[in-house]
Design goal:
heterodimer; A: 555 residues; two-stranded antiparallel ribbon; B: 533 residues; 27 helices; 3 strands
Chain lengths: 555, 533
């Protein structure tokens, strides 16, 4: 059951994309909306049937199709509870994004919806992959549909934005590929059991001190992180994101923020951290500082933005760096927080992009100086806008707060054992600086609200009510638009008030993924360094207490 | 040429059994020689239908040689022929013939097209002196036969003659490929530089002979191994190896012998560009297999050769990619990209046969042949006011008028980037895997950076045709009357998309290389190299 559902999750979007390519243009959007909805239903069934909620195990394990057996490459599917949540998030946002594009896209519709479905297949593939090469294939191929979506349907600078997006991503991820291949080659040479690209096998193999020396782990972590860091995006390599977000069509931005950016964080969580604990611990503070720079830097940039969409895009950078800071606390609280942050960022930023898209369809501008006091014109829209902005800045009671609080707590209490269960590496100072970023974030988001929702009414002179394209749209939101935003708002409220059903299974998963960390972090905190065989093979006598940080995940 | 080959055989071989075995394994080449004579004669016929059948006959001979290769390499003669890498041919020859058929399709109608039109319309009377198609395809087959002969080399004379046989016809092909001065200039440039490179490699071969006193590759390998065991290779042997590598790198268009590539690729007609890009590259790689296999010991290559190859590889991929970034002419861009791909292939050669490097290099050549032919076949199937389409501007908005061609170009370009799950990814993947296994992690990382750089210019081949807007200039771009180049483009483009399904068996089939040669880095030695890092 679980097995066939997992295959269905991949096949259905691909098949629908093909169907759209051959169907008449008029039906393209209906096919897209219907199939994404069905996929969401399947993903719910998948989550329902999923067996790993309480154990943190990966399921199903039997969904394996060999592709290149000589190299041990298979399409093998399965997810742990974190993956299932992200699958749900992706499948949940897709139909909303599709229905949200009904009026915005009027040309080359077939290509638009077909590429989106291909994109969905790759996204689900990333979260479902249990094979390194299949993971990389989906991770990488997602660039192609996104590239076309931005380049064909984007704004004025779409060409530059799409190329920048592609090159940045590709540049980063070839290093990830090199890292993955390095792990696999080492596995083959040392185990002598042929090739394997199974993620869990590789992770268990390379985190074992008997197999990987300190410097090998260090470089593996660097290689893996290079690709993920561009995707997250971290501070110096984030510049593709604002441009891509700004130029992408609305649905593209929603999916980019909602699901694509999670590739990076998910990759760090699923592969980089468990595979190379030594590298992670040694570089932990470096990355934490990068995160802080990212948080503050992006927040300050937001403050001076005039373009609403760019503002939200930069706030994405800030938020994801915050999320990564939580993860680099390396304790379960922080990592749980980081995970909640991923989900919440997907929901609230995705919804904000939808709101802005609705405004853009009506006024053809995203400039805060030209828009103002829209509450008088569009009270319903304003309600949603305020709602999601508050959720984005972490108002208690809404979803954003949960992740933010846990991230901060994980980071703040990292040097105290009791609270987080086991120690992390960061300390209160990191949290304090991060909070500064949060304050700025509250400021710019509220300023934005003040400008466009409240205040005196300002509309562009030639605003769209006179132009043809938007004449079909009512002044305030149509029923279709309300029905897109409402589900997101409900989910946000639910998570805000009652996050426990999510926290419990995630906690279990995280504990298993980071099983080797408590001991190592403790040692690192006491000695300032790790005792780890420098050369794995020659120094064959592995230290006994480090003998079995092999993932408990040999599920 | 057959007599030449036989003379060299007779002088070096005593046993007639070995002789028969050798003749058996070069049966596919002999077939192509016959084919060359046949098409040269057919091309002179008065009857237009006969002349038109030349490409068809050419591909028939190629198809036949595939069948013969498949048959011959099942016989025991393969192992009796005293060849250092006996099974190499079974993959290489088939790859050469298959890509050869695609290349025939690309070029089928272009040679002599104007002349034939003039004959048809009665503007000119038939003149056997002026028709070129027969000669062109005869040379085509000869060059392919030369490349194939390289796969069954047993001594240096054979190696050199085969290398020349793969080169000389291409000079003529460049010159006659289209009736412009640029083609002739390109041919002359190609010829002189090629002659110089041949002299360099011949000088290297002579030194190798001096150092070992033999031309036979197997004996030479043993002698060199003795030298190594006795305290190191003689300087003469190392220098000979370096010169041989440098001379052969001309065929690969590898730095420092790459300067001709952009001019020659640009000057030749698109179909000939596709031809030299593939045939010269596979000839060079096969020749390097032989030369390097002589030097392999259980310790790997001698340090000097490793350093030289390493630097050649790094410079080749880096300069190739940087050069390609600056081009607006698609053919020049493909020339630089071809240089870069040689760099990637060299990783496989450095990794060695035991790490799967030779296997990866062979598989890479197959993929490169398909992808490169696809791009150039699209160019070959278009024309603007009777001229070749070669610049980016000409391709703007191709999708709106010739969607299939634009899609094929986009798919092949994305595949050339190395995007999974297309064919190009598996090519890079096998090369990278072999490289890391062979202890060349740094080189693989440099290659990874390079393939990211290459994404920029390959994306132009996606962006411009797919998303550009047609302008006044592109209004004049039409497909040429013959549909064959288009079929070739579609076949190659589909291959790029569909072949990954069967990639497993394609890679496995390439594994025949170097099974004999396995006295190269074992798992242990490369292991130590990695751990030492």
């Amino acid at each position: 059951m679980l097995k066939s559902l997992s295959y269905l999750l991949l096949l259905l979007p691909m098949l629908s994309a093909v169907a759209i390519a051959f169907a008449p243009t008029k039906s393209a959007k209906w096919i897209a909306a219907a199939s994404t909805s069905v996929i969401f239903a399947i993903s719910v069934m998948f989550a329902w049937a999923f067996t790993g909620w309480s154990s943190g195990a990966i399921a199903p394990l039997d969904a394996v199709t060999p592709i290149l057996p000589e190299f041990g490459i298979n399409i093998s599917l399965g997810a742990s509870s974190v993956g299932v949540m992200l699958i749900l998030l992706t499948a949940f946002l897709m139909p909303l994004a599709m229905i949200g594009s009904f009026t915005a896209i009027r040309e080359r519709e077939k290509e638009y919806y077909a590429w989106f479905l291909v994109l969905e297949a790759t996204m689900l593939g990333v979260f479902l992959a249990r094979d390194a090469v299949f993971f990389y294939t989906c991770f990488e191929f997602s660039l192609v549909p996104m590239y076309f979506l931005i380049a064909i349907f984007g704004g004025a600078e779409r060409r530059a934005a799409s190329i920048k997006f592609f090159i940045y991503m590709f540049f980063g991820s070839v290093f990830t590929l090199a890292g993955l291949i390095y792990m696999a080659v080492q596995y083959k040479l040392q185990i002598g059991n042929g090739w394997s690209f199974d993620l869990d096998t590789l992770v268990a193999f390379s985190s074992n001190p008997e197999h990987m020396s300190k410097s090998q782990q260090f470089w593996i972590f660097v290689l893996l992180m290079t690709g993920f860091a561009v995707k997250v995006p971290f501070f110096p390599v984030h510049t593709w994101l604002p441009l891509a977000h700004d130029q992408a069509p609305t649905a593209g931005s929603v999916i980019l923020a909602g699901a694509l950016l999670k590739f990076g964080t998910y990759g760090v969580y699923r592969i980089a951290l468990p595979a190379a604990p030594v590298g992670a611990i040694e570089l932990d503070q470096f990355f934490a500082i990068i995160c802080l720079i990212g948080i503050v830097n992006a927040a300050l940039i937001c403050w001076v933005q005039h373009d609403v969409k760019k503002l939200i895009a930069y706030s994405s950078v800030s938020h994801l760096c915050f999320c990564m800071l939580g993860m680099f606390s390396l304790n379960s609280v922080g990592t749980t927080g980081a995970f909640m942050y991923m989900i919440n960022h997907g929901l609230s930023t995705g919804a904000l992009f939808l709101c802005i898209g609705m405004i853009y369809e009506r006024y053809h501008t995203k400039d805060m100086d030209k828009l103002g006091g829209l509450f008088r014109r569009m009270p319903v829209w304003s309600f949603f806008m305020v709602f999601f902005t508050l959720s984005s800045l972490g108002l208690p009671g809404l979803n954003g707060f949960v992740g933010e609080f846990l991230c901060l707590m994980g980071c703040f209490t990292a040097d105290v054992d009791a609270v987080a269960g086991y120690p992390g590496l960061l300390g209160p100072w990191y949290a304090i600086i991060a909070v500064l970023g949060l304050i700025v974030s509250a400021m710019y988001l509220l300023i934005m609200l003040g400008k466009i929702v409240w205040g005196p009414l300002r509309e562009p002179l030639d605003h769209a009510h006179t132009s043809h394209a938007a004449s079909a749209l009512p002044r305030d939101l149509s029923l279709r638009e309300i029905s897109i935003l409402t589900p997101i708002a409900l989910v946000s409220l639910f998570i805000g008030f009652y996050p426990n059903p999510m926290l419990a299974p995630i906690g279990k998963d995280i504990e298993e993924s980071l099983a080797s960390y408590p001991k190592l972090v403790e040692e690192y905190r006491q000695n300032g360094s790790l005792v780890w065989p420098e050369s794995a093979k020659s120094d064959g006598v592995a230290r006994t207490e480090l003998d079995t940080p092999t993932m408990a995940k040999s599920r | 040429m057959t007599t030449f080959a036989s003379i060299s055989l007779m002088t070096t071989l005593a046993s007639t059994d070995v002789m028969t075995a050798k003749l058996t394994i070069i049966a596919p080449e002999i077939l192509l020689f016959i084919g060359a004579v046949v098409v040269a004669v057919l091309g002179l016929s008065r009857a237009p239908a006969v002349r038109r059948s030349v490409p068809l006959v050419t591909s028939l001979f190629l198809a036949l040689s595939i069948a013969v290769t498949a048959y011959v390499y099942r016989l025991d003669a393969v192992y009796a022929a005293n060849v250092p890498m006996p099974e190499l041919g079974s993959y290489a020859k088939i790859v050469i013939a298959v890509i050869g058929i695609l290349l025939v399709m690309v070029g089928s109608s272009s040679v002599d097209r104007r002349l034939e039109e003039a004959f048809d319309s009665g503007r000119a009377a038939f003149d056997p002196i002026r028709v070129m198609r027969g000669e062109y395809f005869a040379f085509f087959l000869l060059a392919l036969a030369g490349a194939m002969l390289l796969a069954s080399t047993s001594d240096l004379i054979w190696l050199f003659l085969a290398l020349e046989l793969a080169s000389l016809p291409t000079y003529v092909m460049v010159a006659v490929s289209r009736g412009t001065r640029r083609a002739q200039e390109a041919a002359v440039k190609y010829f002189f530089l090629g002659a110089m490179a041949a002299a360099v490699s011949l000088y290297g071969f002579a030194m190798l002979y001096g150092a070992t006193g033999t031309l036979d590759l197997i004996v030479m390998k043993a002698k060199l191994a003795e030298q190594t065991a006795a305290g190191g290779l003689s300087a003469l042997a190392v220098l000979g190896g370096v010169l041989a590598i440098l001379g052969i790198s001309f065929k690969l268009a590898a730095v420092p012998m790459h300067f001709y590539a952009p001019d020659v690729y640009e000057g030749a007609a698109s179909h000939t560009t596709a031809f030299i890009a593939f045939v010269a590259k596979i000839a060079g790689v096969l020749a390097l297999f032989s030369v390097l296999s002589v030097f392999w010991t259980s310790e790997g290559l001698p340090a000097t050769l490793t350093v030289v190859l390493w630097m050649v590889a790094v410079l080749t991929m880096t300069l190739g990619n940087i050069g390609a970034l600056l081009q607006r002419n698609v053919k020049r861009m493909m020339a630089y990209s071809s240089i870069a791909h040689s760099g990637y292939i060299l990783i496989g050669l450095l990794a060695g046969a035991a790490a799967g490097g030779y296997q990866a290099a062979l598989f890479y050549l197959l993929c490169y042949g398909i992808m490169n032919t696809a791009i150039l076949a699209v160019l070959a199937s278009l024309e603007r006011a009777g001229e070749e389409v070669e610049t980016m501007e000409d391709l703007a908005g191709l999708r709106q008028r010739h969607p299939i061609l634009a899609w094929m170009m986009a798919a092949s370009a994305i595949s050339l980037i190395g995007m999974p799950p297309l064919l190009g990814f598996f090519a890079k993947f096998t090369i990278f895997t072999a490289g890391i296994e062979g202890g060349q992690t740094t080189l693989v990382i440099i290659a990874a950076v390079n393939s990211a750089i290459s994404a920029y210019y390959y994306l132009q081949l996606v962006t411009v045709p797919m998303l550009g807007t047609p302008n006044a200039r592109t209004e004049g771009v039409h497909t040429i009357p013959s549909a064959w180049p288009r079929y070739a483009a579609v076949l190659c483009g589909l291959g790029v998309i569909v072949l990954p399904i069967g990639v497993s068996s394609l890679v496995k089939a390439a594994a025949v290389v170097g099974s004999e040669n396995a006295a190269s880095p074992t798992a242990d030695s490369s292991d130590n190299q990695l751990n030492a890092r």
